[in-house]
Amino acid sequence: MNTLFREIFKSDIEHTYKAPARINLIGEHIDYNGGKVFPCAIDKYITAYVSTRKDKELHLFSKGKDLKVHSLDNLDFDEKMRWEKYPLGAFYILSKKGYKFPFGLNIYYESEIPVGSGLSSSAALLDLTVFLISDIYKFNLDRKEITLIAKAVENDYLHLKSGIMDQAIIALGEKDSGMLLDCNLFTYTYHDVNLGNYEFVVLKSNKPRSLVESKYNERVEECEKALSTLKKVYKIDKLVDLSVDQLNNAKVILYDDVLYRRVKHVVTEVDRVNRFLLALDEGNILELGKILDESHLSLKDDYEVTGFHLDSLFQACKDSGAIGARMTGAGFGGCAIALIEKEYFPKFKKRVTTRYLELTGLKPDVFEIKIVNGVSKIN
Ligand code: ADP
Ligand code: MG
Questions:
Q1: Range of lowest pLDDT (17-21, 31-35, 39-43)
Q2: pLDDT tens-digit series, residues 210-247
Q3: Does residue 61 have its Cβ closer than 6 Å to ligand 1?
Q4: Which of 31, 127, 166, 311 is catalytic?
């Protein structure tokens, strides 16, 4: 790596950092509704190799793309920016908070996280950049601050309405644990994900996500609209405060089938998060599988964020003997997770690949995962 690095930057690597991808196990589209989600960090990484510069320039390189050069004196957002808007946004938000950068950096990014597949390559890139900045300039940011700065880049620099989940789990993830994260209060607890002879696997649909941003924003707005109507009747601050028992009445109050189904997904998904944690504690694998299936069907029929490819992937998992499966991430393409017996993985991979190919004409990528720690320095 150092030879490649030298070729581009004419200096040696001084620091190396890595940030993981993430999957969400349960609690989908709950973050911006103020509820609890249960993601974990997985062993697919983006790595940053860094050296310091004598001038005040940022030289940014990502494998497979061109070198981008920017002055630290002008970090304003510009429509012409490509991928470099993510790292530049991190410098921008920190500078607005009063942090000073007395010298520039050379950064070489190399990633094994598929881009735009719902494993959150963007939050990994952001957390990684904020983390390395904090280390190199000695800002001593803790992992909660790193999360909030990375989120501010997405919200205030890139103008995306994303919640806090992705940045939080990539900054704060712990090995072999899921993180039960309250997205409203930004509080969290860790829970062992010990499945014995079973495991979660990830399946990439290889359908590029489309319309994600507009559809995502549409769901956010629908939930806001439903909340404002329901607030007139119920004493609630967030949609997730509504109970399953109140759903029937909500149907009458909303008087709008689409809004009702959005609310129904949110309320039942909150219930599924609670049941999922119980089932984990009890080691009840069949119940975990059942909850995954229910979550997928709710995202398909009520929240309508799956689409043909994710539904076919779900079907292929079920037809290939998965105990449970569901889409993970925002949806509209991207990835699914499935719960299977570890020993069965080679057969499952073969079967699910054939079945998905039959249904869609596409081959999925299917891989086993380990649950790992959040962003870290390597040396
Ligand atoms: P994801 O679900 O993977 O987070 P997004 O659309 O939110 O999908 O983010 C993908 C964007 O993040 C890319 O278009 C690119 O701008 C940026 N990105 C992610 N990984 C890298 C990388 N290794 N190098 C450069 N840019 C990256
Ligand atoms: Mg993203």
A1: 31-35
A2: 767 788 889 999 999 999 999 999 999 999 999 999 99
A3: no
A4: 166
Please report whether residue 160 resides in a domain: yes
Find out whether 340 and 316 touch, Cβ atoms under 8 Å.
no
Residue 139 lies in a domain: yes
157 lines ligand 1 (CB under 6 A): no
Question: Is residue 166 annotated as part of the catalytic site, yes or no?
Answer: yes
* In a domain? residue 56: yes
Residues with a beta carbon under 5 angstroms from ion ligand 2 = 122
Total domains in the chain come to 1
* Mean pLDDT, rounded, for 314-342: 96
pLDDT > 90: percent of the chain: 93
Answer whether residue 318 is part of any domain. Answer: no
Q: Is the pTM of this model over 0.90?
A: yes
- CATH code, domain carrying 114: 3.30.230.10
Tell me the per-residue pLDDT of 13-30, one tens digit each, with 9 for 90 and over: 999 999 999 999 999 999
Structural domain including 106 reads 2-192
Mean pLDDT to the nearest integer, 166-170: 97
